[in-house]
Amino acid sequence: MENQNMDEIFKAMFGAAEAELDLDQLDDVSGGVITQKGEKMLRDGLKLAKVTGVSKKKVLELLPEYYNMLHSQFPNTTLKEVETWINKNWDKI
């Protein structure tokens, strides 16, 4: 059940974000680049994960599978930097 929820969460987060890519608005995150829409996408996705009972551990475990979709929102940010962002912001969401 948890894997199915995560699959739906990641597809919703990253599929919608790719259609709305806006590189004109950039924020600096962990030395890389994250779009404002990318950050909103991550925050919304983490909120949804928490509400549906998906753990941070599971999000981080599945993140590499979805990184290619995610990468368009974080063009100069490594997977490790995105993981760090999630770890840093999980409790704030």
SSE layout and pairing:
Blueprint: H1 2-19, E1 26-29, E2 32-35, H2 36-51, H3 56-70, H4 79-89
Antiparallel strand pairs: 1-2
Helix pairs in contact: 1-2, 1-3, 3-4
User: Rounded to an integer, what's the Rg over CA atoms?
Assistant: 12 Å
The percentage of residues in β strands lies in 5-15%
Weakly predicted, low-confidence segments: 17-31
Straight-line N-to-C gap? 22 Å
The overall average pLDDT, rounded, is 72
Give a short synopsis of this structure.
By secondary structure, this protein is mostly helical. The protein is built from four helices and two strands, in the order H-E-E-H-H-H.
Characterization of this structure:
This protein has 93 residues and is mainly α. The chain contains four helices and two strands; from the N terminus they run αββααα. The chain has one domain (2-92). It has a two-stranded antiparallel ribbon with strand order 1-2. A hairpin with a 2-residue loop joins strand 1 (26-29) and strand 2. Helix 3 (56-70) packs across helix 4 (79-89).
Short key terms for the protein model shown above:
single chain, 93 residues, two-stranded antiparallel sheet, 2 strands, 9% strand
